[in-house]
Amino acid sequence: MTAPKFLVAFAAAALLSACASDPETAATSGTGDANAGVIRPGSQEDLRANIGDRVFFGTDRSNIQADQRPVLERQARWLAQYAQNQVTVEGHADERGTREYNLALAQRRANAARDVLVASGVAGSRIQTVSFGKDRPESLGSDETSWAQNRRAVTVVR
After folding, report:
1. What does the mean pLDDT of the chain come to?
2. Which has the minimum average pLDDT: 23-32, 52-61, 111-120, 145-154?
3. Is the C or the N end of the chain the one with fewer CB within 10 Å?
4. What is the pTM of this model?
């Protein structure tokens, strides 16, 4: 009688170890993600990883600097490739200044990025803008490194 119990336990252990090491079985059983680490073309992750989803600005500036223009031009080409995508350009500011000033500045930044995308061939009807001012910092901190990361416009796929 102990032999059948031993065989059942052995068979169960062998079956479990086989399932755990088989990616197809894991993916179809819901115990694993067969697409983990795979970026779906046309997604926000694709834009961020392969094109760049943000441009940065100088202090109290809303003009697109020459070194940032290529990012927006790549975004425009990407948007031409994925014509079904619509985007929102989010404007952001660092923590310095009043709330009202930063909301207006961040809106000008979002509009400036939008204008470059439109000038590069993206239909304006595919792009919305929104200002977050200083309310959604990328980097917490009260130093130039943090402020530089927070002075940005981010293109987000809707």
Report:
1. 86
2. 23-32
3. N
4. 0.77
pLDDT digits (tens, 9 = 90+) for 119-129: 999 999 999 99
Between CA 57 and CA 70 the distance in angstroms is 14
123 and 15 Cβ atoms separated by less than 8 Å: no
pLDDT digits (tens, 9 = 90+) for 14-43: 444 444 444 443 344 444 556 667 999 999
Write the DSSP string, the chain.
-HHHHHHHHHHHHHHHHHHHH-HHHHHHHTSS-TTTTPPPTTSHHHIIIII-SEEE--TT--SPPTTTHHHHHHHHHHHHHTTT--EEEEE---S-S-HHHHHHHHHHHHHHHHHHHHHTT--GGGEEEEE-TTSS-SS-SSSHHHHHHHSEEEEEE-
Residue 60, token pair as written in the block: 């109290």
Which phi and psi angles does 75 have, rounded to 5°? -60, -40
Fold classification of 44-157 (topology level): 60s Ribosomal Protein L30; Chain: A; (3.30.1330)
Could you tell me the residue ranges of all domains in the chain?
1-38, 44-157
Measured CA to CA, the distance from residue 73 to residue 90 in angstroms comes to 17
Short-list 158, 87, 152, CA closest to 124: 87
